[in-house]
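Write out the 3D structure for:
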Amino acid sequence: MAETRKPDGVDKHVGERVRLRRIMLKMSQTELGNKIGVTFQQLQKYEKGANRIGASRLYQLAQILNVPPGFFFEGLPGSKVNAVLPDYLIDLMGTAEGQRMVQALARVRDKKVRGPLEQLLDSLGSEVLPERRKPRR
């Protein structure tokens, strides 16, 4: 009888990060599976850590899910991988103007002001806020 393999902690963590990002993008398992050429059942196994994701497949997932490969390892206990910021935030913070804007926004503490300010920025277009994400801490 074949021995059942218990999911490795790293495989489980990577799978959870794939699932997290897929859900953030409101993508179904079938849709993502089709994009990487596997069934939704195989994708389920990846997400549960039951099947290990190879390096080339992980790179393919990173491209499709629009994250750097290191994203899948963020938060791994004992990992030295730093939280990776999205490119648009890195680009913004790489300019003096961007840093001043973020610092000015951080000084706005009143929630009654922040709501309308967010709506204003959002209404300026997708160039300002390409994707609504929770800030990383």
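Residues 9-24 form the longest helix (16 residues).
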